[in-house]
Amino acid sequence: MLNKTSTEEQAEVARVFKDVRERATGFDSASSKLDEFMTDLESEDDLE
Fold first, then answer.
1. Can you list the positions of beta strands (E) in the chain?
2. Residues 31, 37, 43, 45: what is their CA dihedral angle, to the nearest 10 degrees?
3. pLDDT tens by residue, 4-24
4. Which contiguous run of DSSP H or E holds residue 14?
5. Which end of the chain is more exposed for a tag (fewer CB within 10 A), N or C?
């Protein structure tokens, strides 16, 4: 027996996925900024 999802449920799922994607994008951005910062610190250590 197939379970048909209502339009309301599909909209809720779409909202959750959108939220997760936005959070993941924010995390990727913060992560790459942290990587840049760590690289800068390492290159400063190399100068000493």
1. none
2. -120
3. 668 989 999 999 999 988 888
4. helix 7-47
5. N
